[in-house]
Specification:
Length: 182
């Protein structure tokens, strides 16, 4: 058995950026991201890989079982008076379920099942094609479309792009202080 190929991907969840470790040997998306087509481009772009892994992170967090025993995190943090703001396990699980639900709803019923199979249940494209009775190499094309829609939902793009023109803003010193004489 070969060594796992671990890569680090930076994702953003609810405004918080974090780096996650991804076993590219385990993930069908990682496998597709390393493979090149006839045109020399990978089958899965970096943005598509990030979107798929972000879906997988939420799926994993949403599937965590609730804590049945003592809350040992509170002991590790110290006293209850100095609680660090954040989510407990149940709240984090619920938030992940909501993010997962919104993402799958945004991709639509045409793509959500495929994304779950590939990104979350780690099924390969050949297995998907067999199970669904699709012609060979069809799953790669449909998966690419699904990942594009998922990336758009997450606000990810190959190029950062803003509005062509924004409204100018100017303040006078008197407006900031509330003094109408200035």
């Amino acid at each position: 058995m070969s060594e796992p190929r671990i890569d680090h991907v930076e994702i953003e969840i609810d405004g918080a950026r974090t780096r996650v470790a991804v076993d590219l040997e385990e993930s069908p998306l990682g496998w597709l991201a390393r493979r090149r087509g006839r045109d020399g481009r990978s089958f899965v772009s970096p943005v598509q890989l990030i979107a798929g892994e972000r879906l997988r992170v939420d799926f994993t967090r949403a599937g965590m079982t609730p804590r049945l025993g003592a809350d040992w995190e509170a002991v590790a943090r110290g006293s209850r008076r100095g609680l660090v703001p954040g989510l407990n396990a149940s709240e984090a699980m619920l938030a992940a379920r909501q993010r997962l639900s919104r993402a799958l709803e945004a991709t639509g019923p045409e793509f959500s099942g495929l994304l779950l199979d590939v990104c979350c249940f780690l099924k390969g494209v050949e297995q998907i094609e067999r199970e669904r009775g699709w012609p060979a190499r069809t799953a790669k094309v449909v998966l690419s479309l699904a990942l594009d829609r998922l990336a758009r939902h997450y606000g990810l793009g190959e190029v950062a792009q803003g509005p062509e023109r924004t409204r100018g803003r100017a303040w006078r010193a008197g407006e900031a202080t509330g003094d109408p004489s200035q």
